[in-house]
Amino acid sequence: MKNVSSIKDCYGCGMCATVCGQRIIEIRLNDDGFYEPHITHPDKCTDCGLCTSVCAFFHNERSAELSPIGCYAAWSSNSEIRHKCSSGGASYELSRHLLKHGFKICGVKYNPETNRAEHYIAKSAEELDASIGSKYIQSYTVDAFRAVNRNEKYLIIGTPCQIDSFRRYIRLFKKEENFILMDFFCHGVPTMHLWDKYSQWVRQQIGEGEFSYVSWRNKAKGWHNSWVMNIGNAKGNKVISIATKGDMFYRMFLSDTCLGKQCYENCKYKYDKSAADIRIGDMWGNKFRNNEAGVNAVISFTPIGEKLLNQTETLHIEPYKFKTVAEGQMKTSPHYPSIKNNVMDKLKSDDCTLGDTCNIVLPYIQRQKIKRLLRHPLRTLINRLRKALKA
Ligand SMILES: Cc1cc2nc3c(=O)[nH]c(=O)nc-3n(C[C@H](O)[C@H](O)[C@H](O)COP(=O)(O)OP(=O)(O)OC[C@H]3O[C@@H](n4cnc5c(N)ncnc54)[C@H](O)[C@@H]3O)c2cc1C
Question: I need a surface site. Which of 38, 96, 116, 317 has the fewest CB within 10 A?
Fold first, then answer.
């Protein structure tokens, strides 16, 4: 069989379900809490091979071997927009510009009914608002990707693996010229078991019913301290929980202890590796270390991406070297943490609270910190010895 039936623990991008003409592929959460294809009627498979041909996980190489063309610090010239967005508001300004030029925008919003992040299509500035802000969970793509009309113009925003599959898809149908693809420097996505447990904890805090909005980042205390969860409901009950004060979602997510299998083992998209026209991110390096309004790192990989950046008048851009723009970004995948299985078991178990899981992650984080501190002087010593030996 040439279908995705044997594919497990993949990127979960949903492209196979999108392209399947028989509509027999569903994307479901697997036991570890990550999206994965499931063939509902194997007998109806025609062996056409479309599902594997658009799958970025199935292919060892990326759909495009691109190198950075332009590297910039960027931010919205509208201070209100800049304040609302996670970094500098580049994705919003590029989207707004393209909306004015007849494009639709396929980005990600939080859906309170399903309590998950979902791709959706914005056709107006009002509809675009829901895409503002990073949602640090894996997005469900299939409904939106299926609704994309390949004969119309779209900006597609997603994780680098989602975008790699999307390029395979539009190339297959010879429709690349209708699309602009944008990804971001991606840390990895955490298991939905973390999100479920965190949601349970939030419900206990706010007391009454479901919450209706979630915001993962907030610049009230500045961009560098913007790892703030703000979750609540229409009655005004809410939880505001800050990473620096031990927020449990961020403690788990940023410790890299519960990411997707492929985020550790098979990410082909770190640092300067992308299949997108444009890559965005936080410009965390030294250059803007005192800036608290928020600055995007922006890289163009194709002439289309470069042209868009230069044409978007509401986006301020400043050119820098790639190394400066990407300073602080991960160059390789995170190491598989020794406590990963233990963490996953606890997140899956109904008998464990999120607090229980955090209790095993905290000592791990502290051990990692000590290792890093020791490694630094050791590396300096080795470098000095090397230099002395060469001299
Ligand atoms: C899971 C994840 C990991 C990330 N890791 C890094 C990292 O390691 N380094 C770094 O510099 N930046 C990372 N980012 C990107 C960063 O958080 C900002 O989104 C980015 O800098 C854009 O900022 P902005 O101000 O332009 O837009 P924002 O206002 O943050 O808009 C975010 C854009 O991303 C899209 N989006 C939001 N959530 C998701 C999602 N779950 N899946 C797909 N698309 C989504 C939205 O449609 C919107 O267009 C990550 C984002 C996510 C979602």
Answer: 38
